[in-house]
Design goal:
Strand order of the largest sheet: 3-2-1-4-5-6
Number of helices: 8
Radius of gyration: 20 Å
Number of strands: 10
Helix content: 25-40%
Order of helices and strands: HEHEHEHEEEHHEEHEHE
Structural class: alpha/beta
Length: about 250
């Protein structure tokens, strides 16, 4: 962060210190939700997005890194706005987003990245700004949630939406995907490290499919098991209810 940006943040902090009512709105509310940059975390966050849908209108701020997985998600109920990362104050991307959001009004801003992006509250004036707790993030965010998504769900008194309801994976596509990669079931998805404890076909990241391949998450979804790194793909495999094979 540049010295000028730091000075601006300190001098503009006062605008975020107005009194507000955390809850108490009547009828439907308008939500601006900044989704996590990591695919696994973004999928987990959909449980909150789906739960809030009955509470009102939702606009999703989506980093472009989520483009491939979003191809397979049912997001028609929501307005989606993609942006290039990283989002910084006064950057070209920041100015573009600010222009897009200038005609919209929101009751809540929910930042689901950890740590929270301090540029987001400057995009549009919102009275209630929610993020997970981080030191020195107040008053840019004025409702700080400790722990996890469950705590956030409890704050809004909502049930977390079932992730499978978001999936647009069509089981009829299974044969097409397996043929494309010349694979058969049962299929093991390998991310970095292989295992001998598997009687079936295998597909390996970086050898047969790249991390940037649009089909990456579809072939993972149609696989039967996962083996390898404990990273975002591992988190996705667990969310897809894949069997985890120890190395």
């Amino acid at each position: 962060m540049s010295i000028l940006t730091r000075i601006y943040l300190n001098s503009s902090k006062r605008r975020f210190t107005k009194n507000f009512t955390p809850l108490g709105f009547k009828g439907k509310a308008d939500f601006l939700i900044s989704m996590p940059h990591q695919v696994g975390s973004a999928l987990e966050a959909l449980a909150i997005v789906g739960g809030l849908h009955k509470k009102g209108r939702i606009v999703l701020l989506l980093p472009e890194v989520l483009t491939n997985i979003c191809r397979f998600l049912k997001l028609q109920k929501y307005e989606t706005i993609y942006y290039k990362t990283p989002l910084k104050l006064f950057s070209k991307e920041y100015k573009s987003l600010k222009e897009i959001l200038s005609t919209k009004k929101f009751d809540y801003l929910i930042e689901l990245n950890e740590p929270p992006n301090i540029a987001i509250p400057y995009l549009v004036p919102v009275e209630r700004r929610i993020s997970f707790y981080t030191e020195k993030i107040y008053p840019y965010y004025n409702i700080l949630i400790k722990d996890n998504l469950q705590t956030l769900a409890e704050f809004f008194n909502i049930k977390q939406y079932k992730l499978k309801n978001f999936f647009a994976f069509n089981l009829k596509e299974k044969k097409e995907v397996l043929q494309k990669f010349n694979k058969k079931k049962p299929l093991l998805f390998i991310n970095d490290k292989d295992t001998e404890v598997w009687n079936g076909d295998r597909i390996a990241v970086d050898e047969e499919i790249s991390l940037s391949d649009p089909e990456l998450y579809r072939i993972l979804y149609f696989s039967d098991a996962y083996c390898g790194r404990r990273d975002e793909l591992y988190k996705c495999a667990k969310l897809f209810n894949k069997k985890i094979i120890e190395e």
